[in-house]
Batch of 3 targets.
Target 1
Amino acid sequence: MSAEMARKGLRAPVNVTWEITLRCNLRCVHCLSNAGPVSKEELTTSECRDLVDQLTVLKVFQVNIGGGEPFIREDFLDLLRYSHEKGLVTCVSTNGMLVDNDLARELSSLKMLYLQVSLDGATAEVNDQIRGKGTYKKILNAMDCLARHRVPFSINTVLTRTNYPQLDTLREMAKEYGAELRVSRFRPSGRGKESKDYLGPDKDQLEAFADWLNEYDLVRTGDSFFCLTSENRRIKGLDMCGAAKMTCCISPNGKVYPCAFLQESPFLVGSVREKALKDLWDNSLVFSRYRNLDVKSCLSCFRFETCRGGCPAMAYHTYHDISLPDPECLVNIQRDLKEFGGSEIRD
Amino acid sequence: MKPIKDPRYILSSGTQIREEDFGLLFYTMKGPRLYFLSSGQMLNSSFFQGELTLDQWIRLKKEEGSVPEERKGGIKKSLNQLKDKGVIIER
């Protein structure tokens, strides 16, 4: 029912993903944004505040802030406070490199903040291969500081071939910190394009992961394992891709896209520097096409109501066509594994 | 706890509300979660200032014009569900 209402279109996004800077102090091999050096013409503090004002008027409930590393921006804490004053709930993704006791103390006073700390392995060997040498130790130190100052946070792990065997340990680690584990999907965008072949989870792992998710109810999957999750799990949260219907993405320089994984020219909606976000939300042809997207080849599938064709960004990055099914569709994976006797199949 | 006979409703702490074409959209920081209330034009966010009961609200809206009485039962049930989930509070 709720999905049907959302599909008909909302007056404004429910939440917005805002990549507030492209600047990053790490070079993670799977980074969806290819973050690193500062991008050209990032929004200034005053433009950021104006955007917050727009989001407030539109009654957007939550802003998911990532990048890049948001805490690199010197004005970031002020922008956070400004957003909260305006009534916006913020969810910030950080790599933890700048989180120390001082910052944790500051964050402990913010009540409208969710914090996600990225950790891509339960051991230094696995995590550091993805996020960089020495990062495991620093991330643990960041989480210690946050726990010490009672800042609620979740651990965000992008599922990869190498950390899949460590999921149970990661779940235990999160529990020890009083945090939630949130598993995100590996997407071949940004630097993920180059690392997919050796880091993307294989089909056996994806099939087993679907069962694992069923078993561990409290593990969150913030972004769209629609292609894998069961009906039981789906009713607990959003049961479709929300891009252009409930959410959209704003890049560091103010460009608007349906989602963070589709920040490419065919999906450029416009710029908040040139038009109001409300105008873009209501009148963009890109959004309109995206809202009316049908994955026709999936219509007759018994799982269609569960996944609706899965993640269009995955289809785009694999086939350059968002109207095709998610390449990691559970039905296709299971069929392939059955046909080929359960051995690993790579496209 | 004894149910309140003719309750008024307010938003719980951490709940926000928005008007949509289908009715009302609630967001709660617990989760966070979204809840859709298919109330059409029958309710708006000011109902949750807790000044009027549902009956009083409907009476007022009928005087203004366009509220179909037959939807009252469904709305009442939905409000109860939202209350049970901690999205709104009776008073």
Target 2
Amino acid sequence: MEKTSQSLDDKLLDYLDGTLAESERKNLEQQIHRSTAIKTRLESLRTTHELLKQFNIEQPSRNFTHALMQRIDQAPARNTFSIRNGIFLLIGVLVTAGLAAMLVSIGVFDTPSTIELNNINIPEKYLQQPLPSIPVSGKTIVNIIIMLNLGLAWIVLDRAILKPLFQRRIHAGR
Amino acid sequence: MNLCNFPTTICVQAAVMTNDPEHVLLDRILAGEQQVYAALVNKHKSYAFTIAYKILQNRPEAEEAAQDAFIKAYHNLKRFNRESKFSTWLYRIVFNTAITYKRKNRQQFQNIENTVIEYNQEGEGMLEKTDKRKYLNQALAKLNEADRTALSLFYLEEFSLEEIAEITGMQANTVKVRIHRARQRLAEELTTILDHEALTL
């Protein structure tokens, strides 16, 4: 049997959907009338089209809404973090804090330094008097970073690991 | 009666963005009237379940996926920007949730072009409509989820191509082409079956 082209198939489907323009439709009907191959192809597509038109809406179980409304408060929006990712993040945060603590303990940040504000290029007309030097303690800054890391680790442990874990257990036990 | 419990500017803004009457219900849900959501669930559960079922091909799983999608939608109502209909937004969530379920279950997609439909030898002879439908369902099961969902939504005649595109995350033109190609493949499968039936008569 002669095979119809892709564009002709598209036209035949548009014809079945009723989306062809009037002139195109008439033109196609003439082609169908003249060619047995096109007529056969149209019938094949029409059979599929008619079967697909019998698609029904599927119905869920009767207690769908009731069961859903019971779950709605008990199952809050899923955490974007999986427990596994939470554990990786926690390890990362703790390793960072540990490394920083180790560097502090071996005295890497013990040397005090200062920020000389007078070294900043500011036009003299704005300066009434010389700017002070600000002492900077690297140790203090790193200690603050370590504290922030530990706080972050605590939040990660709670939100990304313990909370989802207990929620999962609660739902599994229901 | 003023159904919108939010400041007037927010209500007016929401009304201007779309004409979806369900947006008023969303305001009530956001204001704490949880039972209103049950009404929305009742209204959309059949289509939501149908979408999930077309993707998962398994009723209990489809029900679970549809319920999860409704719960996700409920907890993310504030994030719904109201530029589209609520139903379109919801069905997109259903579609994505069902796809995630499908991937989790590691059910491999089989391309219809590389598979052969098994013929039922007992049923040879007169091919009744139920047989045709059965073969059509077999062929449909071998389409990928997006094509099957697009085709189902198209034939449920409830959605425009643009809405189907939004639900399935494709361009409207792509949806049209994929629906065309899917129907061609299905027609070819059915023709093969019919020829086989004719030969065995």
Target 3
Amino acid sequence: MLLIDCPWCGPRAETEFSCGGEAHIARPADPESVSDAQWADYLFHRNNHKGAHREQWVHTYGCRRWFNAERDTITYKIKRTYRLDETR
Amino acid sequence: MNRYSIFSLVRNALTYHERWQAVWRSPQPKREYDVIIIGGGGHGLATAYYLAKEHGVRNIAVLERSWLGGGNTGRNTTIVRSNYLWDASAHLYEKSMKLWEGLSQELNYNVMFSQRGVMNLGHSLQEMRDITRRVNANRLNGIDGEIIDVARVKALEPLLDTSSNARYPILGASWQPRGGTARHDAVAWGYARAADARGVDIIQQCEVTGIRRDGGHVTGVDTTRGFIAARKVAIVAAGHSSVVAGMAEVRLPIESHPLQALVSEPLKPCLNTVVMSNAVHGYISQSDRGDLVIGAGIDGYVGYGQRGSYHIIEGTMAAIVALFPSFSRVRMNRQWAGIVDVCPDASPIVGKTPIGGLYINGGWGTGGFKATPGSGWVFAHTIANDYPHELNAPFSLDRFVSGCLIDEHGAAAVSH
């Protein structure tokens, strides 16, 4: 089980959290103007990296706030966690 | 290839089983092939076999970075069924089921296909409505299926807790009598042997490190054993689909997650069928060796580590004990994980890519084993003709652009 360092609550067990998938995916500012392929890229296509991966987590059974984590998808080691208003 | 039969068994017994032929060759890679298949799991080997058998392609290589069937083919819970909701899925999985029914004879290799029946339990009124809808859809597509009541469930599986006092009481189930299990390793070995007999080069310990292209068309692959040329390259890499497709700069709508399974110590026969429950989330069958084969859920995050979290197992064991209270003292022997390639609509991608001569068969997620024969069959057709078969045309990569998704989360059975 992972030990996840919530930026607000500190280190807590993984079972308190839910993973929200890849981070830093920006919704197209003007959805009307993008092509179907661009929209599909936003909706469905994912990096699915093997190695360093930035992803969203939410402290479901804690402060219920979202944050980002940089985690290795092979070792599962979390390099750091950071708030949504912090730079990557 | 020496055929296996009772006579070959007796003949080899007389020589103390010391003269059995190697099941497949281990050739050096040639410089060029007509078709290269990346991934020596069940789906890749089946693709090679049907390419050689149905389409007369002679010059095929299957490249496997590790050993045959060492990925998800050897890590699944061996369940075979075809009770999917939508027409496209039902036809694809039923094609597979029909191939399973003659597979041991076709391959001359016993894949131990056992049609003991698959039961999907319903624990709430809504689940029973969903089950009714799915069974009716199955029957309209010519797939066997029944809705059975609690008394029938109890008759089929006496150890199930069917009392109304259960935390999630069983109200009934869907029942597919033709469903069952098969020996997963034997499927890989059987296809490998049959493909090898038709001249397919199976090259293990050969990892693909790059996909070369020229003018939007594939020209070959770089491997740990050098460059190998081919005009057609097929990716059948399961959990590593995104990684391999990324070598050709193709982005996929896939995320790879660890999915766990575990087996118990061997017991005397106590389970007659395959029992699955979406609501409490557990599925279980008993292997011919006697151990209980139990499937868990996926970890919520992307992972390539081939190991899963203990709290996922804990949840699964709680579900199994709720269904079968008498299993509470059974000890578990082994636990492992495979990396499953999950698509947003819980349906696979089988077809062409934007790059000429590059094909993909992946995204089977948590339920690819049952589809192994059919998947190989339609994918071989796609590669040979550079055009999908009507069975896999709906499972194209561009459905995520067109929006024509095939939502099978209900029938996929593993929550994700």
